[in-house]
Amino acid sequence: MEDLTARTAEIPGVKCAVHYKYMCSDPGQSLVREKIVEEKLDGLVVAACSPHMHMKTFRAAAKAAGLNPYLVEIANIREHCSWVHEPKTEMTTVKAMDIIRMSVNKVIQDHSLEPIKVSLVKRALVIGGGVAGIQAALDIADAGHEVILVEREPSVGGKMAGLSETFPTLDCSQCILTPRMVEVGQHPGIRLYTYSEVEAVSGFLGNFSVTIRKKARYVDVDKCNGCLDCWAKCPSKQNQSEFDYGLGQRKAIYVPFPQAVPARPVIDPKTCIKFQRNKCGVCLKICKANAINYEDEDKIVTEEVGAIVVATGFKLYNIGKKQDTPGIIGYGEYGYGEYKDVIDGLQFERLASASGPTSGEIRRPSDGAEPKNVVFIACVGSRDPAKGIPYCSKICCMYTAKHTMLYKHKVHDGQAHVFYMDIRAGGKSYDEFVRRAIEKDGARYYRGRVSKISEENGKLMVSGSDTIGGEPVEIEADMVVLASAMRPSDGAKELAQKLKIGYDEHGFLSESHPKLRPVETTTAGIFVCGACQGPKDIPESVAQASAAAAKVQVLFSKSELTREPEVARIDEINCAACSACLRACPYSAIERAEIRDRGGNLVKYTSRVNPSLCMGCGTCVSVCPSKCADLEGFSEQQIYGMVNSLI
Amino acid sequence: MSGDFEPKIVAYLCNWCTYLAADLAGTNRLEYPANVRIVRLPCTGRIDFNLIIKAFEMGADAVLVSGCHPGDCHYTAGNYHARRRWILFRELLDVMGIDLNRIHFAWISAAESKKFQQLMSDMTSRIREMGPYTGYREIAGIEP
Question: Residues A328-363: pLDDT tens digits?
């Protein structure tokens, strides 16, 4: 480092070069400030870690010492050099020197800039009405800001509304969630768009414009009084209930579950007799509120918001052979979808739920008999790179333990068997909970995998292995419950693309920093929470939702926002007004303007950048044929200066 | 053939995807040869023809341009602009007589640090095999 410092001091334009081990620490920053004042510096290069890590830190330090923060550059010699190349070799040192030289040449061409001030709409959009979305919406609304909550399904509640009892306390899911749902429905600060989806998003931090599609409900929500007579009288009732994951039936006009918020039904035109055969019309006849409208159509509404919280949640991995995502492979050998009594975790939740299709009695789907031997298989999909899901779904160990307990509490003479890979029960009272399932409620745990499930004489033959006992295990089961992997919900990727936020290879939405910015995204003003960001349980989802809400409140505590001034500018004197930039700009931030003399006579046309709309991508710079467009912070001079220093 | 030859590679990376992939490669300590010099740009949409020529003029043996995957651009469509322009670049560079094997275009997202490492290693050894690029200087009439 000493050598590097000495060599840096010799670069033309460098007034002084100092070395300190932790430049981002307090003493390091003091050193920076001192040097700026002492040496009367008009530019600063910090050769350290990535600008994505500490640009803000050093800009603030420069500002404190009276140096314009945009006269700071970072030479990334850690992530891009010392951490990835062989240490202490000449080549690595030469590269580090090159990086520093490039940054010095860049800083020389930096301009003093002032942040751009923009107005701010203090209204938040929350996408997804599961427990995370509900928590975020309530927190923001309770802080006094308007919230628009968009939910794809006819009711808020999400996956949690369908759960039976929750670990590790075994309190009933609906008992703790429904009051929150009601609160969301009645909160004066929350506007609910259920059965709606986000169609398009434009704008930027503080000023997003969101287009929402309100799907045709065929029931006028304002007129409907929620008597649900239509639900009771609808003759089309043999339709698979989405809420019960196909275990129960629903009518063609329905609310997903009795405690739905809003308690307003929707008509499913695919199963409604009126839509299919133009007969029936019972609901229209009996509705005293005149709320049924068969002519209803999708409506598009636009809302202006200042911040967006994404809480789109998860879905379960489809265990069967058919997959919706390339690279993901099913478990054909478990017979899911073929054998009726092989179900997944969420289906078991419905069986165990008092409001479920069996009113909480554990009955197997095929014949309604009470199963006396139930096999639970953990890690179905999860931690299996061969199936395309290398990650741990985090909640399955816990809910499988819970399932065995619920089962034992309901079927006293039944026996639960669990095949597991490892038991991951990290969390407050979590390990104790699993111990209780094993020691008190007698679940038999086998460390091993199941190779095959086959059906013989109404029984499911489960062939697995017990790797601790070192022997194969054959169980004659009445029902098998598969703890299948958590995957991001359908459409999460497409939504991320609309929002311009990142997602990982599995489709989970990316946070801005895995440790220090867990709810922010790389797009300012958009936050993530809940299982759409990665597998997590209810307490974690709620905590993250509150964190996202807190971030929104921080944003809304300001009366106006400042934006980075690294935006495009046009040399209006030389611009030929060809409008190439105008067509290329993805933000419509460039307009065709007139230049007039004092007498008001038109001198010429020019392109002009609206700095509050420009995001600084630089596309205009590369399309301008006369080189009249340039970008602050990444100017032509600077980029060429950097490349020039590579001799 | 040229055992001691260490190529110089100039990489124009977009700030939001590939630059972050390179950062992540650092965080994960994914080692690759120290032949690349990274120029951070806001977006691949910012890259114009002259930048590629400039790199060769400054003695680069190869140029890498890499940004977000199609559909993932931080600025909506910058990478589409880049892709469209790249089709023209190729033709033009080819006509000029520049060896297209010296230019590599890639999509590497912020999560794909391994892909970045792999590309840097592969590209370096490939260019090492190919030897120093003297073609540009010949075309431009610069004395070697």
Answer: 999 989 999 899 999 999 999 999 999 999 999 999
Q: What is the CATH number of domain A123-312+525-556?
A: 3.50.50.60
Nearest to B75 among A92, A502, A617 (CB): A617
- A-chain CB neighbours of B43 within 8 Å are 617-619
CA distance A586 to A618: 10
Residue A521 is given by DSSP the state -
Residue A316 to chain B, least CA–CA distance (Å): 23
Whether the Cβ atoms of residue A239 and residue A249 lie closer than 8 Å to each other = yes
Helix axes A131-142, A173-186, angle to 10 degrees: 40
User: Is A80–B38 a contact, with Cβ atoms under 8 angstroms apart?
Assistant: yes
pLDDT computed for residue B1 by the predictor: 42
State how far the alpha carbon of A63 is from the alpha carbons of A28, A59, A98, B40, in Å: 15, 6, 27, 23
**Tokens 């095999």 -> residue:** B129
Tell me the per-residue pLDDT of A65-84, one tens digit each, with 9 for 90 and over.
999 999 999 999 999 999 99
CB A177 within 8 A of CB A194: no
User: Taking all residues of chain A, what is their mean pLDDT, rounded to a whole number?
Assistant: 94
Q: What is the CATH number of domain A567-631?
A: 3.30.70.20
Say how far apart CA A427 and CA A543 lie, in whole Å. Answer: 14
CA A313 – CA A136 distance, rounded (Å):
13
**What residues does CATH 3.40.50 cover in chain A?**
2-114
User: Searching chain A, which residue's CA lies closest to the CA of residue B48?
Assistant: A622
Q: Do A643 and B55 touch (CB under 8 A)?
A: yes
Pairing of strands A373-380, A415-420: parallel
The helix-helix angle for B49-57 and A636-644 (nearest 10°) equals 20
Can you count the helices (H) and strands (E) in chain A?
A: 17, 32
Rounded Cα distance, B144 and A309, in Å = 58
Domains with residue ranges and CATH for chain B: 9-140 (3.40.50)
3-state secondary structure of A532: helix
Which CATH code, of 3.10.20, 3.40.50, 2.40.10, 1.10.150, is assigned to A2-114?
A: 3.40.50
Dump the DSSP string for A557-601. Answer: TSSSEEE----EEE-TTT-----HHHHH-TT--EEEEEEE-TTS-
- What tens digit of pLDDT does each residue of A50-62 get? 999 999 999 999 9
Which residues in chain A have their CB less than 8 angstroms from residue B37's CB?
A: 95, 98-99, 102, 646
- B34 and A647: CB-CB below 8 Å? no
Alpha helices per DSSP H over A187-268? 229-233
List, for chain B, all residue ranges whose pLDDT scores fall below the cut of 50: 1-2
Give residues with Cβ within 8 angstroms of A643, minimum separation 6. Answer: B10, B39, B51, B54, B55, B58
Q: State pLDDT tens for residues A444-480.
A: 999 999 999 999 998 999 999 999 999 999 999 999 9
pLDDT digits (tens, 9 = 90+) for A144-163: 999 999 999 999 999 999 99
pLDDT value of residue A237: 86
ipTM: 0.94
Domain A314-487 carries which CATH code?
A: 3.50.50.60
Element (H, E) at A10: none
Please check whether residue A490 is in contact with residue A315, taking contact to mean a CB–CB distance below 8 angstroms. Answer: yes
All CATH 3.30.70.20 domain ranges in chain A, comma separated: 567-631
Number of Cβ pairs < 8 A linking chain A and chain B: 139
CB contact under 8 A, A500 and B76: yes
Which of A80, A617, A646 minimises the CB distance to B10?
A: A646
Neighbours of A279 (CB within 10 A): 9
